[in-house]
C-alpha cells in the first residue's frame, strides 16, 4: 500500500457543508507538504440532492480525481449506495452508525473497515452545534490516517476566523473529538496513513500558513489550494485588470465572486450586470476607453454575448472573455462538466473574423495563460476566449505560489499621451491605419487631440462608415492579417507536448512516440494521471495538449500525427469537436477516439483501460 | 494641429454631411446636441458619444468628437463601460425608439436605477426608420406599417413614465422642431450629475405620416409655461407623463439629486481607472490561498 | 387513465417532491398557485405553465400540468407563443426577480403593453438563489452579496411602479407567507382577461438574510384593509407603489379592462390557430406576382 | 448582337424610385414572356446615397446579374461616373441633358449612344409630378428597344392601382412621353431590341396578368417576378405556417412584410417582437403548442437567437429559421451581400447538437426547400436553418408559377387527438420516449389527457429534470440519432449536381467532369451563367451545389472531388467556410478557391475568367 497517497471522499446532502470540508481537507494536506486534487459534484439545487467532495492526496503532484476511493465519509446513506462500487481494496467507510445501518452483509465484501463514528453523539456530548458534523468527520478522517491534528486545527482557524471565535472553537472541538475517536478505535485497523512531508531545506512545510509571530509568511515553497477560476481571477488582477463585468452563471460565477471580494483592495471595478449582453458590451466600452477589461460566463451566456464578440472584432477592441463550459444544449446539466462548446467558440457571431481561443488544462496554465491572454488581446486588438469547464473551473489543486517576477505586461502599440506624432495631434486620427502587420497604433479617448472613432459597420482608416468595395476588402484582410503574428508569438506553447521521448527502463515500445494522446482543456489532468498508471505498466505515452485551438498550429499537429503509430483523441463531448478541427486543418484522422458526455469528467482509470485495450489490440495484430 | 476647443458649434461638425432624408427630425436633434456642447464649452476630445443602430445611430458619423457607433440597442452598456473606465469623459448615448425602448429597454431600466452620469437621448420618431418603416415601441395604437398593415395592437411604451417609475433623476421631453428648447434640455441634462433621459420626439418624413410637423405643432406645449408645475414632485411628474392627445407636454418632467454610481466607488475617487497603475502585487493575495 | 379534472389541489401535484431549502418561500407560492387552479376548477391538461431558470423556475417540475421549463429570462416570449397558438389554454408564466426583472425585464415591459391573457408571477426573493446568492434587481441598496461584498449601489427596480407605468391591466403584490391572500390574487389574476402581474415577495432562507419572515411580518399590510384605496385609480396606484419601508402594501394595486391582444386578432376569433386547417391554396397569391 | 437579350441598369439617388422601377421593368419584360434577373444595390440609408437597379433580360432563363450594361439610365451624374466602365459595346446611356452634361469627350469612346431624354421637360409639359421621372425613364427605355408599350402600361396600372387613379394616370402619361421620345429620336440609332415572345400554345403570354374580364387569369404558363424572400414566404404559407415572429433586419425584413400583408387572408399570426430573442422564443412556444412556426433574421439577430436554438434542440421543438446573410462582422455592410455565417450557423449555441442547415440557390429552391424545411423540422423535431443572403433574398427572378399540386405536408409522428394509446391518455406521458430512430411521438398541450412537459435541462422520457449519467448519455445519443434519417430522406438533393456529363459538340475535354465547381447558396446563379459563357468556349463544367450543408453528404462529396481533375471552390466570403467543412468531412482539399468578400456578389464574368485561367494553366502544363 502506497504511503502518503489517499483518495478521500465525503458525501452528504447539499447544505451540510461538503464544499467547506473539501477545502479544509485539501488545505490541511497541502500545508503538510502533500499535493491534492479535489473536486466537488453537486446538483443544480441549493439544498437536498447529493453533494460529494473527492480529494486525491499524494506526495507527488496529482493532476486529477480518480475512480477509486480509500476513505468514504458518508454523512448520509445515499453516499454509501452511490459510491460503494468505487471503494478500493481495504478501504474504510466513516459513518455514524446511529443514523446509518451498515454491515458487512450489505457490502458483500470483507476487506473494508467499517469505521463507525458516533458523530451525532460526539456533537451532543461536546455541546456543539449540529452544523459541525462535517468537521467531526474531517477530524475522524485525519485520526484514521494518523495525520498531524495541529495542521487541521490551523486550517480550521484560518477558515472560520471571520465567523468569530465561537465558530472557530466549536470547529476545533469537533475536529478533535472526531480525531481522537478514530485514532483510538480504528487507527490500528486501517493501515493507510498520510503524514506531513519535510521539505528538503528542512522544517515542516507550511504547517499553518502563518509564522510564529502570526504574520503571513508566504514563501514560494508553500503551496496554494486553488481552483482554475481562482487562478484566472488572480492572473487578471496581476495583469492589471481594471474592469470586470459579468452576469452570474455556473461555472463562471466564482470568478465574479473572487474579483468582487478584492475590488477595492486592488482598485478595479466589478459590475454584475442585468444580463450577459450588458456584461460584454460594458467590457468593450471600458476597453475602448483604455483599461484592461474582462467578462466571464458559460455557454448560455456566451450565446447572448455572440453579437458583441463581433463588435469587439470589427472595432478592434481588446477583450478577454472566460467561457466556463458545462453540458448542453441549453440549460443542460448546469453544475456538471463537458467540453462541447469548442466549435461554437470558434465561430460565434456573424461574419468572417478570427478570435484567439485558448483552453488551459490546469490551474497553473489558467494563471499564466490568462496573463498572456491580456497581452495578446491588447497586442493584436482582438477578442481572446479562455475556455474552461466546470471540472477545471471548480476543482481544487495544490499549486506552487506563482512566479510573478517574470511576468510582463504588454499593452501593444499604444500612442503615448506625450507622443508628438502629427497624426494623433490632429482630430482626424487614423485609428484603423492600414499597416503591413494589420495592427494599427491605438489611442484612447481624451488622451490626445486625436479623436477615437469606432464603428460597428465597415469603416475607413478613420473609423468612419464606408461601403467602398476596395476599402472593405482591405479591412477584412487587415483583421485577418493581424493573426499571422500570434502563432509565432506562441511558439511551442500553441500545442504542448508532454512525455515525448521519456526514458523508462521498463519501456516496451522502441518508438517512444508510438502512442500519442491528443486532447484539450481540462482532460490534461486525467491524461497525466493515466500516463502515470500506464508508465507503471511500462507503456509510455506522448501527450499533445492543444492549448491554443485558434490560431491552430497545423504544422505541428501534422507532424505529431504523422510521427505517431497510434493516435488517441480524448474529448469530453459527443461530437469529437477538436477532432473535427484537426481534420479540417490537417486532413488527417486520428486512430481512436475516446469520448464521454454523461456530464462527468474522465477518470484516469478509464483512459488507462482504453489505452491498454488499444495497445493490446496493436500487439495482437503485429 | 487644428483647434480642439469647442468654441463654436462648428467645431463639432465633421467634413461629411448627414445623409438623412431632407426634412428629417434627426437634423434638429443633432444640431441641438452640438449646440449644447458648444454652450457648455466642452472640449471635443473629452466627449464620447455612443450611438445605436438606426437612422438616429448614424448621427455618430457627424460629430467631431470621440464616437462609438455600437450595436442596435446596446448604447447604454457601452456608454457605462466607457464612463466607469474614464469618468472624466462627458458621455452621451443616443439611439432610436426601437433601439432604446424596444430591443434595448432592459438596459434602459437598469441604467436608470444605476444613475451613472450619462446623458441619454432617444430619437423618438415612433417608427423604425432605417429598416424602412416598421412599427416601433412608441408607435401609437392603430399605426399602419409594413409589419402591421392592419394597425398596431399594443399601446405604446411611455418613456417618460417608465423613466420616472424606474427612479430616473432627470427626465425630459424635447421636440426636434424646437431646437432652442431641446438644446437647453440637453445642456441641462449634461450638467445634471446623474443619468439624464431626454425623449427627443422627432418627425420621420419618410415613414411616419401620423406624427408630422403639423401634428406636433398643434399639440405640444412647454411645461415651463405652466406655473403650477413642479418638476421636483414625482407624483405630479407621473401624472403629467400620462398627458397625451390634444396637448402634449415638453420640457423637464422630473429632476432629483441622488448620488451617482461613480460617486459610490472609492476606487475611483482620486482618479479614473484609466489613469491608474497596472503594476499590481499579488504576493499577499496568493498567501491567503495557502 | 387517472383523473384529469382539477377537483382538488393535489390533482396538480406530481410524484416528485420540491427540492427547495426547507423554509423557502417558493413552497408558499407554489401552493398558492395550485390552490388557485383548484379554486377555479381548472383542468390540468388545459393549463400550460412556463417557467424560467432559477430556484423559482424549478417549480415547473412539481406541477402536474403541461409545463415548459424555458430559459433564464424568456418565460414571457415562450408563454406568448403558446397563448397565440392556442388561446384556449390557461397560460401562466413564472420566474425569479432576476429572471423577470433583470435579464428578462425587456420582455416584461413589452408583454405588459401587449396585454395578452397571461398570468405572470414573479418569485421575488430579492436575490439570485440558484446561483448561490448574488444581487438581484430588487435587492435593496446596500445589500451584501457575493457579487456586491460592499453592498449594492443601485436602487431596486420597483415592479409595481414599472407595471403601472407600462400600462398593465392587473397589478398585485402578494407574499409567500400569506398563502390564502396570494391564492386569491393569483386566482383573480387568472380570471382577469388580460395580462396580470403578481409580484410574489418571497423569503430566501439561504441567501437573503435581510428580508426575512419577521422583516416582512412587521411591515406588510393588505390594501383591501384600506377603505380609501381604489384600485381603479392609476394615480393612487402609482402613489402607493412608492410606499416601501415601515409599511409595505400587498394586494391589488391596479386593475383596468382593456381589450387583450388576442381579442384584436380576427384570425383567431372562431378558433385557435392550433385548430385551423393547414391546407392552404396559394394559387391566387402567386398570380398576384405575375 | 443577341436579340431579346438586354442588360439594363437604372441609377439615381435613394428616394427617386429605383426599386419601384426595377420591379416595373422586370414585370414588363416577364409578362412579355422574357426572363429576367434583377438586383438592386443600395446603401444603408433611406435617402441620398446611390441606388442602382440592374436587370438582365433574356429569352432563355437567366440566373444572375452580369457585369456588362447595355442600357444605362442615369437619373444623376454619379450613375454615369460609377458605371461607365461597365458599358458593353454599342451601349446606350439614357439621361436628361438638361441636368447632366455629357459628351463623347467625357466618355472617351464613340460606340455609345448618348440618348438625351428631356425628362424634366417632359414632366413639365405634361404637368406631371416630379416623382414620375423614373417612369419617364422606363418609358424611354422601352421605346429605345422597341418593346410593346401596352405591356408596360398594364404593369404600371397594376402597380399603382392601390394609390388611386390619378397616380395611375400620371404614370401612364409619363411612360408614354418617355416611350414616344426615344422611339422617335433614338430607336434607329440603337440597334438592340427586345420583344414579347409568343408562347408555344399561341397567344401572347401574360400581357397584363388579368384577362379580358379584368379577373386574374393565372395559368402555370405565366411567370412570377419574385425574390428569394417572396418565395420563402409563399412556401411558408403553403406549408401551413400559423405563426411568424420576427424583428426587422435586412435582408430578412421583406419576409416579415410579405407575411404581414397576408396574415388575415390566410389566417395566421405575424408578430413583430421587441427583439430577436423574443422572436425565436415565441416561435418555439407556438410550435410547442402545436402549430407550424417560423422566424427570420440576419446574422446579428441570429447571434441573439443562439441561446434559444439550443432550447428548440433539447426540447425537440420543430423550428424553421430563415437566416439572411450580409457582410460582417457586426453591423458590417447592412445592405450588401456575403456568405460568411455558415460556420456560425453550423455551431451556434452551447452544447453538442445537430441542426439542419440548408442554403437554397434561387427562388424556386427557396420555395420548394422551405416546404421541405417545415416537413423535416416536424418529422425530426429539430431546428432547420434556411440560409440565404442579401443577393438571393432581394434579387428578383422570373420564375414559373410553382407547382403546388404535388406538395405534401408531413407533420411527422403526432399522436392524433383520437388516439386510444394508453400512454397519452395518462397524465404521465413520455414525450421523450427513447426509440430506435431517436424520434418520439409528439402530442400537444390540451390535445390529450397526457401532459406535455418539456425542460431546457437534461430530462428523462417524461420531460422531467435528470442528472442521471446513463439517461443523460441516452438523451444525447437520441438527439443525434434522429439525424441518421435526414440524409437518406434527402437522397440526391443534399448535394445537387448540374452539368454532369453534359454533351456538347464543341466539347474539348474528354473527361466530362474534368472541371468541377463547388459552391453553396446564391452563387448557384452566377455559376450557371458562367457555365453558359464557358460552354460557348467549349468548356463544360460540372457544378456541385451543396444544398444541405448539415447533415453533409460526405460520400457524395468525396466521389465528386475524386472524380474531378480540377475542383474550384467558389464562395462569397473570406474564410472559404464551405471549404473548411469539406475538408473536415472528407479530408480532401479543393484545387482552386475563388473568394470574394467586398460585399458584392460574384459576376459570372469573374468566374468565367478564373476558370479560363485555370483551364489555360492546366492545358499549358499538359
Ligand atoms: C440585433 C439587430 N437586430 C436588428 C437590426 C436591424 N435594425 C437596424 S436599425 C433598426 C431599427 C431602427 O429603428 P429605431 O431604433 O427606432 O431607429 P431609427 O432608424 O428610427 O432612427 C433595426 C431593427 C440590427 N441592426 N441589429
Ligand atoms: C443566460 C443565462 N445566464 C445565466 C444563467 C444562470 N442563472 C441561473 S438562475 C440565475 C438567477 C437566479 O435568480 P432569480 O431569477 O432571482 O431566481 P431565484 O433562483 O432567486 O428563484 C442565473 C443567473 C442562466 N441559466 N442563463
Ligand atoms: S427614414 Fe425617417 S428617420 Fe430615417 S432619415 Fe428618413 S426621415 Fe429621418
Ligand atoms: S436558495 Fe433561497 S430561493 Fe433557493 S430554494 Fe433555497 S431558500 Fe429557496
Ligand atoms: Mg425610430
Ligand atoms: Mg431571485
Give an overview in words.
The complex is a heterotetramer, with two copies of chain A (622 residues) and two copies of chain B (290 residues). With 622 residues, chain A is α/β, with parallel strands linked by helices. Chain A folds into four domains: 5-185, Pyruvate-ferredoxin oxidoreductase, PFOR, domain III (Pyruvate-ferredoxin Oxidoreductase, domain 3, 3-Layer(aba) Sandwich), CATH 3.40.920; 225-400, 3-Layer(aba) Sandwich (Rossmann fold), CATH 3.40.50.970; 413-484, no CATH class; 491-621, Rossmann fold, CATH 3.40.50. Chain A has 22 helices and 21 strands. Chain A has an eight-stranded mixed beta sheet with strand order 6-5-4-1-3-2-14-7, with helices on both faces. A seven-stranded mixed beta sheet of chain A has the order 9-8-10-11-13-12-19, with helices on both faces. The longest helix of chain A is centred in the N-terminal third of the chain and has 21 residues, at 165-185. In chain B, helix 8 (234-241) links the parallel strand 7 and strand 8. Mean pLDDT of chain B is 95; it is low at 1-7. Chains in contact: A-B, A-C, A-D, B-C, B-D, C-D. The interface between C and D is large, with 61 and 78 residues. The complex binds thiamine diphosphate (2 copies), iron/sulfur cluster (SF4) (2 copies) and magnesium ion (2 copies). Residues 54, 96-98, 125, 127-129, 136 of chain B line the site of one magnesium ion (MG).
Which tags fit this structure?
heterotetramer, A: 622 residues, alpha/beta, Pyruvate-ferredoxin Oxidoreductase, domain 3, Rossmann fold, 8-stranded mixed beta sheet, 7-stranded mixed beta sheet, 22 helices, 21 strands, 38% helix, B: 290 residues, 9 helices, disordered N terminus, binds thiamine diphosphate, binds iron/sulfur cluster, binds magnesium ion
